[in-house]
Amino acid sequence: MTSVLVFLEGTSDELSLQAVTLARSLGGDVFGVEFDGPYAPAVWAAEIVRLADGVDAVVGPGSDRGNEVLAHVSAHLDLPFAANVTEVRGDEVTRVRWGGTLLEEARVHSELKLFTAAPFAFDASPGPPDRVETLRPDLAGAVQAVEHLAPDTGGKVSLADAKVVVSGGRGVGSAEGFGMLEELAALLDGAVGCSRVVTSAGWRPHTDQVGQTGTKVSPELYIACGISGATQHIAGCKGAKKLLAINNDPEATIFAHADYAVIGDIHEVVPAITAELRKARGA
Ligand SMILES: Cc1cc2nc3c(=O)[nH]c(=O)nc-3n(C[C@H](O)[C@H](O)[C@H](O)COP(=O)(O)OP(=O)(O)OC[C@H]3O[C@@H](n4cnc5c(N)ncnc54)[C@H](O)[C@@H]3O)c2cc1C
Hints:
Blueprint: E1 3-7, H1 14-25, E2 29-35, H2 41-51, E3 57-61, H3 64-77, E4 82-89, E5 92-97, E6 102-107, E7 113-117, E8 131-135, E9 164-168, H4 178-187, E10 191-194, H5 196-200, E11 221-225, H6 231-237, E12 242-247, E13 260-263, H7 266-280
Parallel strand pairs: 1-2, 1-3, 2-8, 3-7, 4-7, 9-10, 9-11, 11-12, 12-13
Antiparallel strand pairs: 4-5, 5-6
């Protein structure tokens, strides 16, 4: 490779920095482009196409925006695009499919390669490229995002941004059972999440759902309470730095993903953790 262009959603955006690490692994000169102004995927893609003249690869973050913009680039250039890549070996890639349940080996048949980096498959710490161009393209007549409505979290930290997520599954037993999870989350300045069984039962709103068809979270700590660990759930929390699983079934799949495990009844374990935290804080 002689040069690789990276589409950045910002020079400190974690998924974009992970894309930079993928770009560096390809070898050659790595330079970035970011955009100032409203989100306008088709226009941004046209700018990337212009900058991509003569480069060997264009890499983006494995975010909704990264995948959408790179899909536009792919359509513009009529070239194949491999999304959510975990490794590149020459023309061959490994990429994540089906919400993290499948790793696909594929061959990319084009000179100019188009990739997005699978979230959390690469280290973000090496930082942004030395050279980053910030563009403010003319958006007249373009489809663009005119307003961003953040979900109403009632002043609490949002699920996507929380450093701690206390998440409940079928094992919680009822909507009322989430009271103990709310209490623990509040003590940890965290947010409450849940599995799809919980939203299907109407115990929590869909905005609280973590997983393949819910929110993807990447907290410092994810506390899974009475959650079995289905692949569709893990797809939403595998970005967590540490996972504490509390489950009364020692064979539960969630333990295979856990850094810390407590085998026990959440109705005893969660209040015990809360009580210990209060004691430690003298409250
Ligand atoms: C296309 C598709 C998309 C999906 N998307 C999502 C998604 O985005 N998010 C998601 O979560 N799921 C999703 N699912 C559903 C997923 O497959 C599982 O069915 C779901 O995650 C299971 O939820 P659960 O772990 O709460 O329930 P269960 O699998 O029933 O597990 C409950 C767990 O609680 C434990 N338990 C019970 N009582 C207690 C107790 N008192 N103390 C401690 N532990 C206890 C049990 O041992 C068990 O492990 C999807 C499925 C499909 C097909």
